[in-house]
Amino acid sequence: MAAGQSPLSQFEIKRWVPIEIGDVDVSLTNSAAFMVLTVVAIGVFLILGMRRPAIVPGRWQSMVELSYVFIANLVKDTVGTEGRPYFPFIFTVFMFVLVGNLIGMVPYGFTFTSHIIVTFTMAMVVFLGVTVIALIKHKIHFFTFFMPPGVPLIMAPLLVPIEIISYLSRPMSLSVRLFANMLAGHTLLKVFAGFVVALGLFGVFPLAFVVVLTGLEIVIAFLQAFVFTILTCLYLNDALHLH
Amino acid sequence: MSDQRPEKELEELDARLREARGKPDRSGPATGAENSTPGSALGLAMRVGVELVSALAIGVVIGWLLDRWLGTGPWLMVVFILLGSAAGVLNVYRMARGFGYAVGYNQGPDPGQDQDPGDDRGTGIEG
Predict the structure, then answer these.
(1) What is the CB neighbour count within 10 angstroms for residue A77?
(2) Which of A87, A173, A242 to mutate to test the interface with B (most CBs of B within 10 A)?
(3) Is A212 in contact with A112 (CB distance < 8 Å)?
(4) Domain ranges in chain B?
(5) Which H helix or E strand runs over B28?
(6) For residues A43 and A101, what is the distance between their CA atoms, to the nearest angstrom?
(7) ipTM, 2 decimals?
(8) Cα Rg for chain B, rounded, in angstroms?
């Protein structure tokens, strides 16, 4: 902070490779670069981990299998067998958010999940996809979703807008939760890290706090990836089994 | 065809494992974590806050857009702020009632519409 560094400067988008197609700016930013890095890391982790699959898995292979089984069970428990066709998407979402969060924990790294536009885009993909699935599966029947069963018709003008707002707030709450957790955690880390230098000898106290907080942040990185995934599963479950 | 037998053996082993665990179908680490709320009280507070505010924000945006479209002064926005806060409370209520994180109706199968579950069984994705 002494160097004029704001705790929020870590979230700045920087153009690494400026590219322009027509009038559209498609530069490779640090955000985009870290997304590519995340995808490459996931690919290396999964492909190299299963390169020589053994009946009795080694450490690496069992980590790959663990992540697969974890999401497979999650899908099975929340959506049921009808959720099977959507497993690849859900697994992709989970790995992308998780590895993105974890790469953001590396010093000098960039956390793309701390940008609302990234999380909101992912949430909108989930939301629109789930709505389209529900519309294809249930056709016009889908709109009974907004009318709770057993409600007198006179209440409909009041209840239906409330239900629609509640439904539309899904992508919002889904994206804000992930974004806010990552943003708050990383800002807090930076602020306390700034105290370490500013307090001189007494800086050991904030330093200890930062160490604890780093552990907590890693837990949150897992937790938020899990929450994002389970919410996706539950929305998918709603779409497939309309009540 | 050589891998036919090990598969059968593995299935047997799986059945025995399930029996030993005392659970008929579910297995794996996800079962415990699924229903319990992950995170601390702070996480719960965070979720409640996000649910409340996001529904309210959607209500405000809808009301504002409708007002701009229809030119009806501030009135639709006022109405939709009230509806949005009602939706926010509804979201929190559903969360607190233990319907998981889902916003929809998760109380279980509804006897009124028995056509959907039949459809689902029909596709029968097994293995």
Answers:
(1) 20
(2) A173
(3) no
(4) 39-102
(5) none
(6) 16
(7) 0.73
(8) 24
